[in-house]
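Justification of resources, computational component.

The compute hours requested in this renewal are based largely on the per-chain cost of generating structure records like the one below. Each record pairs the submitted sequence with a full C-alpha coordinate output. That output is archived, and it is also reused by downstream analysis tasks.
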Amino acid sequence: MTAAQQFDEADGKHPSNRASDRLFELLKLFGWLGIVGVGGPAAHIAMMRKRVVVQRGWVSDDEFIRMVGACALVPGPNSTEMAMALGARRAGWRGLLVSGASFIFPAFLIVCLIGWVYEHVLSSSMIADTRRWLVPVVAAIVLDALWKLRTSAVRDRSDVVVVMLALVGAALGIAELAVLLVVGAASIVLRSRRASAPGSLTSLSPLPVVLASVAGTASTVVPLWKIFLVFLQIGSVIYGSGYVLLVFLESEVVARGWISTGVLLDAISVGQFTPGPVFTTATFIGWNIAGFAGAVLATLGVFGPSFVFAGFVDRVVSWSRRSHVFSAFLRGVSSGSIALMVVVLVRLADEAFVDWMAVATFAVSFGVILVFPRLR
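The structure output for this chain reads:
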Protein backbone atom coordinates (compact mmCIF):
# COMPACT_ATOMS: atom_id res chain seq x y z
CA MET A 1 0.00 0.00 0.00
CA THR A 2 1.39 3.43 -0.93
CA ALA A 3 1.82 6.31 1.50
CA ALA A 4 -0.95 8.22 -0.29
CA GLN A 5 -3.37 5.31 0.15
CA GLN A 6 -2.51 5.04 3.86
CA PHE A 7 -3.29 8.72 4.32
CA ASP A 8 -6.61 8.27 2.50
CA GLU A 9 -7.61 5.39 4.74
CA ALA A 10 -6.56 7.28 7.85
CA ASP A 11 -8.98 10.03 6.87
CA GLY A 12 -11.78 7.50 6.36
CA LYS A 13 -11.72 7.85 2.60
CA HIS A 14 -11.70 5.11 0.04
CA PRO A 15 -8.23 5.11 -1.55
CA SER A 16 -8.19 6.21 -5.17
CA ASN A 17 -6.39 3.45 -7.07
CA ARG A 18 -7.39 4.43 -10.59
CA ALA A 19 -4.68 6.36 -12.35
CA SER A 20 -7.23 8.46 -14.23
CA ASP A 21 -8.81 9.62 -10.95
CA ARG A 22 -5.49 10.69 -9.52
CA LEU A 23 -4.44 12.46 -12.71
CA PHE A 24 -7.72 14.39 -12.85
CA GLU A 25 -7.26 15.27 -9.18
CA LEU A 26 -3.81 16.66 -9.94
CA LEU A 27 -5.11 18.53 -12.97
CA LYS A 28 -7.75 20.30 -10.88
CA LEU A 29 -5.47 21.10 -7.97
CA PHE A 30 -2.45 22.46 -9.80
CA GLY A 31 -4.51 24.03 -12.57
CA TRP A 32 -6.34 26.04 -9.92
CA LEU A 33 -3.08 26.98 -8.19
CA GLY A 34 -1.75 28.11 -11.57
CA ILE A 35 -4.70 30.51 -11.84
CA VAL A 36 -4.73 31.94 -8.29
CA GLY A 37 -1.07 31.47 -7.33
CA VAL A 38 0.12 35.08 -7.09
CA GLY A 39 3.06 35.98 -4.88
CA GLY A 40 6.03 34.00 -6.12
CA PRO A 41 7.59 30.65 -5.16
CA ALA A 42 7.25 31.06 -1.38
CA ALA A 43 3.52 31.73 -1.68
CA HIS A 44 3.09 28.84 -4.14
CA ILE A 45 4.79 26.36 -1.81
CA ALA A 46 2.70 27.57 1.12
CA MET A 47 -0.47 26.99 -0.92
CA MET A 48 0.70 23.53 -1.92
CA ARG A 49 1.43 22.58 1.68
CA LYS A 50 -2.04 23.63 2.80
CA ARG A 51 -3.77 21.59 0.11
CA VAL A 52 -1.45 18.58 -0.11
CA VAL A 53 -0.38 18.10 3.51
CA VAL A 54 -3.12 19.68 5.62
CA GLN A 55 -6.26 19.14 3.53
CA ARG A 56 -5.49 15.95 1.59
CA GLY A 57 -2.69 14.27 3.53
CA TRP A 58 -0.92 13.01 0.42
CA VAL A 59 2.46 13.38 2.15
CA SER A 60 3.52 14.12 5.70
CA ASP A 61 4.93 17.47 6.77
CA ASP A 62 8.40 15.98 7.12
CA GLU A 63 8.26 14.52 3.61
CA PHE A 64 7.03 17.82 2.22
CA ILE A 65 9.92 19.73 3.80
CA ARG A 66 12.44 17.24 2.46
CA MET A 67 10.98 17.61 -1.02
CA VAL A 68 11.22 21.41 -0.81
CA GLY A 69 14.89 21.09 0.09
CA ALA A 70 15.52 18.68 -2.77
CA CYS A 71 13.88 21.02 -5.30
CA ALA A 72 16.23 23.77 -4.13
CA LEU A 73 19.20 21.56 -4.98
CA VAL A 74 18.37 21.13 -8.67
CA PRO A 75 18.27 23.78 -11.42
CA GLY A 76 14.98 25.39 -12.41
CA PRO A 77 11.96 27.09 -10.80
CA ASN A 78 11.54 25.67 -7.31
CA SER A 79 7.77 25.93 -6.90
CA THR A 80 7.11 24.50 -10.37
CA GLU A 81 9.40 21.57 -9.69
CA MET A 82 7.68 21.09 -6.33
CA ALA A 83 4.34 20.76 -8.15
CA MET A 84 5.92 18.20 -10.48
CA ALA A 85 7.52 16.24 -7.64
CA LEU A 86 4.22 16.09 -5.74
CA GLY A 87 2.51 14.90 -8.91
CA ALA A 88 5.14 12.18 -9.31
CA ARG A 89 4.55 11.06 -5.71
CA ARG A 90 0.80 10.87 -6.34
CA ALA A 91 0.64 9.31 -9.81
CA GLY A 92 4.12 8.50 -11.12
CA TRP A 93 5.62 10.07 -14.22
CA ARG A 94 2.19 10.82 -15.67
CA GLY A 95 1.39 12.74 -12.50
CA LEU A 96 4.61 14.70 -12.89
CA LEU A 97 3.67 15.73 -16.43
CA VAL A 98 0.07 16.60 -15.57
CA SER A 99 0.97 18.60 -12.45
CA GLY A 100 3.71 20.57 -14.17
CA ALA A 101 1.71 21.32 -17.31
CA SER A 102 -1.45 22.30 -15.44
CA PHE A 103 0.51 24.65 -13.15
CA ILE A 104 2.34 26.32 -16.05
CA PHE A 105 -0.38 26.46 -18.73
CA PRO A 106 -2.75 29.05 -17.15
CA ALA A 107 0.14 31.46 -16.62
CA PHE A 108 1.32 30.83 -20.19
CA LEU A 109 -2.08 31.82 -21.59
CA ILE A 110 -2.33 34.91 -19.38
CA VAL A 111 1.15 36.11 -20.35
CA CYS A 112 0.48 35.48 -24.05
CA LEU A 113 -2.65 37.64 -23.78
CA ILE A 114 -0.65 40.38 -22.09
CA GLY A 115 2.02 40.04 -24.77
CA TRP A 116 -0.58 40.51 -27.51
CA VAL A 117 -2.03 43.59 -25.79
CA TYR A 118 1.48 44.93 -25.24
CA GLU A 119 2.29 44.55 -28.93
CA HIS A 120 -0.99 45.52 -30.61
CA VAL A 121 -2.96 47.74 -28.21
CA LEU A 122 -0.64 49.75 -26.00
CA SER A 123 1.04 52.80 -27.46
CA SER A 124 4.67 53.60 -26.73
CA SER A 125 3.61 56.42 -24.38
CA MET A 126 1.25 54.11 -22.46
CA ILE A 127 4.03 51.53 -22.11
CA ALA A 128 6.43 54.21 -20.89
CA ASP A 129 3.92 55.48 -18.31
CA THR A 130 3.20 51.95 -17.05
CA ARG A 131 6.89 51.14 -16.89
CA ARG A 132 7.57 54.33 -14.94
CA TRP A 133 5.42 53.06 -12.08
CA LEU A 134 5.92 49.30 -12.27
CA VAL A 135 9.69 49.04 -12.69
CA PRO A 136 10.57 50.78 -9.39
CA VAL A 137 8.15 48.42 -7.61
CA VAL A 138 9.82 45.41 -9.20
CA ALA A 139 13.23 46.81 -8.23
CA ALA A 140 12.04 47.02 -4.61
CA ILE A 141 10.83 43.41 -4.75
CA VAL A 142 14.14 42.21 -6.19
CA LEU A 143 16.13 44.15 -3.59
CA ASP A 144 14.03 42.56 -0.84
CA ALA A 145 14.64 39.13 -2.35
CA LEU A 146 18.39 39.79 -2.42
CA TRP A 147 18.34 40.89 1.20
CA LYS A 148 16.54 37.70 2.25
CA LEU A 149 18.88 35.55 0.17
CA ARG A 150 22.03 37.06 1.70
CA THR A 151 22.16 34.39 4.41
CA SER A 152 22.07 31.71 1.73
CA ALA A 153 24.80 33.39 -0.32
CA VAL A 154 27.28 34.01 2.48
CA ARG A 155 27.41 31.42 5.25
CA ASP A 156 31.18 31.04 5.74
CA ARG A 157 34.55 32.26 4.45
CA SER A 158 34.43 30.04 1.39
CA ASP A 159 31.15 31.67 0.36
CA VAL A 160 32.73 35.12 0.79
CA VAL A 161 35.52 34.15 -1.63
CA VAL A 162 32.99 32.73 -4.12
CA VAL A 163 30.87 35.89 -4.01
CA MET A 164 33.94 38.10 -4.53
CA LEU A 165 35.07 35.98 -7.48
CA ALA A 166 31.61 36.25 -9.05
CA LEU A 167 31.57 40.04 -8.63
CA VAL A 168 35.05 40.39 -10.14
CA GLY A 169 34.11 38.14 -13.06
CA ALA A 170 30.98 40.20 -13.75
CA ALA A 171 32.97 43.45 -13.55
CA LEU A 172 35.42 42.09 -16.12
CA GLY A 173 32.57 41.29 -18.48
CA ILE A 174 32.99 37.50 -18.36
CA ALA A 175 29.91 35.56 -19.48
CA GLU A 176 27.64 34.69 -16.57
CA LEU A 177 27.59 30.97 -17.34
CA ALA A 178 31.39 30.90 -17.34
CA VAL A 179 31.45 32.79 -14.05
CA LEU A 180 29.12 30.26 -12.44
CA LEU A 181 31.18 27.32 -13.67
CA VAL A 182 34.35 28.92 -12.31
CA VAL A 183 32.91 29.75 -8.88
CA GLY A 184 31.40 26.27 -8.69
CA ALA A 185 34.86 24.78 -9.28
CA ALA A 186 36.39 27.25 -6.80
CA SER A 187 33.89 26.17 -4.19
CA ILE A 188 34.97 22.55 -4.65
CA VAL A 189 38.63 23.50 -4.14
CA LEU A 190 37.91 25.66 -1.10
CA ARG A 191 35.79 23.02 0.60
CA SER A 192 38.04 20.10 -0.25
CA ARG A 193 40.29 21.14 2.63
CA ARG A 194 37.51 20.55 5.14
CA ALA A 195 36.40 17.09 4.12
CA SER A 196 37.36 14.27 1.84
CA ALA A 197 35.54 14.53 -1.44
CA PRO A 198 34.73 11.28 -3.24
CA GLY A 199 33.83 11.63 -6.86
CA SER A 200 35.00 14.21 -9.35
CA LEU A 201 33.77 16.93 -11.64
CA THR A 202 32.98 14.29 -14.22
CA SER A 203 29.80 13.64 -12.24
CA LEU A 204 28.50 17.02 -13.40
CA SER A 205 26.47 17.20 -16.55
CA PRO A 206 28.24 18.75 -19.59
CA LEU A 207 24.90 19.99 -20.93
CA PRO A 208 25.36 23.68 -19.94
CA VAL A 209 28.73 23.89 -21.71
CA VAL A 210 27.42 22.14 -24.83
CA LEU A 211 24.35 24.36 -25.02
CA ALA A 212 26.43 27.49 -24.46
CA SER A 213 28.56 26.64 -27.49
CA VAL A 214 25.56 25.88 -29.68
CA ALA A 215 23.46 28.94 -28.79
CA GLY A 216 25.40 31.25 -31.08
CA THR A 217 25.03 34.99 -31.53
CA ALA A 218 22.24 37.40 -32.26
CA SER A 219 20.77 38.21 -35.64
CA THR A 220 18.14 40.66 -36.83
CA VAL A 221 15.55 37.92 -37.32
CA VAL A 222 16.03 35.40 -34.56
CA PRO A 223 15.58 31.77 -35.71
CA LEU A 224 13.05 29.84 -33.63
CA TRP A 225 15.52 27.04 -32.92
CA LYS A 226 17.93 29.56 -31.42
CA ILE A 227 15.24 30.94 -29.12
CA PHE A 228 14.53 27.43 -27.90
CA LEU A 229 18.21 26.58 -27.32
CA VAL A 230 18.98 29.77 -25.42
CA PHE A 231 16.04 29.29 -23.04
CA LEU A 232 16.83 25.59 -22.75
CA GLN A 233 20.33 26.59 -21.66
CA ILE A 234 18.90 28.97 -19.07
CA GLY A 235 16.46 26.39 -17.73
CA SER A 236 19.25 23.82 -17.48
CA VAL A 237 21.64 25.80 -15.30
CA ILE A 238 19.68 28.37 -13.30
CA TYR A 239 19.61 27.95 -9.52
CA GLY A 240 17.69 29.78 -6.83
CA SER A 241 14.59 31.93 -7.10
CA GLY A 242 12.99 33.30 -10.22
CA TYR A 243 14.84 36.55 -9.69
CA VAL A 244 18.11 34.85 -10.68
CA LEU A 245 16.56 34.71 -14.16
CA LEU A 246 17.54 38.40 -14.46
CA VAL A 247 21.20 37.44 -14.66
CA PHE A 248 20.80 35.14 -17.64
CA LEU A 249 18.23 37.21 -19.51
CA GLU A 250 20.45 40.25 -19.58
CA SER A 251 23.46 38.36 -20.94
CA GLU A 252 21.71 35.85 -23.18
CA VAL A 253 18.84 37.95 -24.58
CA VAL A 254 19.46 41.68 -24.12
CA ALA A 255 23.16 41.49 -24.95
CA ARG A 256 22.30 39.66 -28.20
CA GLY A 257 20.07 42.54 -29.22
CA TRP A 258 16.90 40.43 -29.22
CA ILE A 259 15.07 42.81 -26.86
CA SER A 260 15.85 46.12 -25.18
CA THR A 261 16.49 46.62 -21.47
CA GLY A 262 13.09 48.32 -21.28
CA VAL A 263 11.30 45.25 -22.63
CA LEU A 264 13.26 43.09 -20.15
CA LEU A 265 12.00 45.25 -17.29
CA ASP A 266 8.45 44.99 -18.62
CA ALA A 267 8.86 41.20 -18.85
CA ILE A 268 10.03 41.05 -15.24
CA SER A 269 6.98 43.07 -14.20
CA VAL A 270 4.64 40.72 -16.07
CA GLY A 271 6.27 37.62 -14.58
CA GLN A 272 6.04 39.05 -11.08
CA PHE A 273 2.46 40.29 -11.11
CA THR A 274 0.73 37.47 -12.99
CA PRO A 275 -0.29 34.16 -11.38
CA GLY A 276 1.80 31.03 -11.65
CA PRO A 277 5.55 30.62 -12.12
CA VAL A 278 7.74 33.73 -12.26
CA PHE A 279 9.61 31.99 -15.08
CA THR A 280 6.77 32.89 -17.48
CA THR A 281 8.85 36.02 -17.90
CA ALA A 282 10.40 33.88 -20.64
CA THR A 283 6.99 33.53 -22.30
CA PHE A 284 6.63 37.30 -22.56
CA ILE A 285 10.13 37.70 -23.96
CA GLY A 286 9.56 34.92 -26.49
CA TRP A 287 6.39 36.68 -27.65
CA ASN A 288 8.28 39.95 -28.13
CA ILE A 289 10.98 38.19 -30.14
CA ALA A 290 8.87 36.01 -32.45
CA GLY A 291 5.18 36.18 -31.53
CA PHE A 292 3.21 33.14 -30.38
CA ALA A 293 5.76 30.66 -31.75
CA GLY A 294 8.51 32.42 -29.84
CA ALA A 295 6.41 32.35 -26.66
CA VAL A 296 5.80 28.60 -27.02
CA LEU A 297 9.46 27.74 -27.65
CA ALA A 298 10.79 30.01 -24.91
CA THR A 299 8.35 28.43 -22.45
CA LEU A 300 9.21 24.90 -23.51
CA GLY A 301 12.91 25.69 -23.31
CA VAL A 302 12.95 27.28 -19.88
CA PHE A 303 10.58 24.77 -18.24
CA GLY A 304 11.57 21.64 -20.20
CA PRO A 305 14.59 20.69 -18.06
CA SER A 306 12.45 20.90 -14.91
CA PHE A 307 10.33 17.98 -16.10
CA VAL A 308 13.53 15.92 -16.05
CA PHE A 309 15.05 17.31 -12.85
CA ALA A 310 11.82 16.97 -10.85
CA GLY A 311 11.78 13.24 -11.54
CA PHE A 312 15.06 12.92 -9.63
CA VAL A 313 14.16 15.03 -6.59
CA ASP A 314 14.24 12.09 -4.17
CA ARG A 315 17.57 10.89 -5.53
CA VAL A 316 19.19 14.32 -5.42
CA VAL A 317 19.00 14.43 -1.63
CA SER A 318 20.92 11.20 -1.17
CA TRP A 319 23.33 12.04 -4.01
CA SER A 320 24.27 15.43 -2.53
CA ARG A 321 24.87 13.77 0.82
CA ARG A 322 27.15 11.13 -0.72
CA SER A 323 29.11 13.44 -3.03
CA HIS A 324 30.91 16.32 -1.33
CA VAL A 325 32.05 17.47 -4.77
CA PHE A 326 28.53 17.83 -6.12
CA SER A 327 27.29 19.48 -2.94
CA ALA A 328 30.15 22.00 -2.96
CA PHE A 329 29.61 22.80 -6.64
CA LEU A 330 25.90 23.51 -6.11
CA ARG A 331 26.66 25.73 -3.14
CA GLY A 332 29.18 27.72 -5.13
CA VAL A 333 26.80 28.15 -8.06
CA SER A 334 24.00 29.29 -5.73
CA SER A 335 26.21 31.89 -4.03
CA GLY A 336 27.59 33.06 -7.36
CA SER A 337 24.09 33.44 -8.82
CA ILE A 338 23.00 35.68 -5.97
CA ALA A 339 26.15 37.79 -6.34
CA LEU A 340 25.45 38.24 -10.06
CA MET A 341 21.92 39.38 -9.22
CA VAL A 342 23.44 42.34 -7.38
CA VAL A 343 25.38 43.34 -10.51
CA VAL A 344 22.30 43.10 -12.72
CA LEU A 345 20.17 45.09 -10.26
CA VAL A 346 22.75 47.89 -10.30
CA ARG A 347 22.78 47.94 -14.10
CA LEU A 348 18.99 48.03 -14.30
CA ALA A 349 18.77 50.85 -11.76
CA ASP A 350 19.66 53.36 -14.48
CA GLU A 351 16.55 52.30 -16.38
CA ALA A 352 14.32 52.18 -13.30
CA PHE A 353 15.20 55.47 -11.60
CA VAL A 354 14.36 57.90 -14.38
CA ASP A 355 13.22 60.76 -12.10
CA TRP A 356 12.49 61.61 -8.48
CA MET A 357 8.98 60.13 -8.73
CA ALA A 358 10.43 56.76 -9.70
CA VAL A 359 12.86 56.93 -6.76
CA ALA A 360 9.99 57.83 -4.43
CA THR A 361 7.90 54.94 -5.78
CA PHE A 362 10.80 52.57 -5.13
CA ALA A 363 11.28 53.87 -1.57
CA VAL A 364 7.58 53.61 -0.71
CA SER A 365 7.33 50.13 -2.25
CA PHE A 366 10.35 48.86 -0.34
CA GLY A 367 8.98 50.34 2.88
CA VAL A 368 5.61 48.65 2.36
CA ILE A 369 7.32 45.30 1.73
CA LEU A 370 9.30 45.63 4.96
CA VAL A 371 6.26 46.59 7.03
CA PHE A 372 3.95 43.98 5.49
CA PRO A 373 6.05 40.82 4.94
CA ARG A 374 3.11 38.92 3.41
CA LEU A 375 3.36 41.16 0.34
CA ARG A 376 6.84 39.78 -0.42
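The longest helix spans residues 78-120. DSSP finds 16 helices and no strands in the chain.
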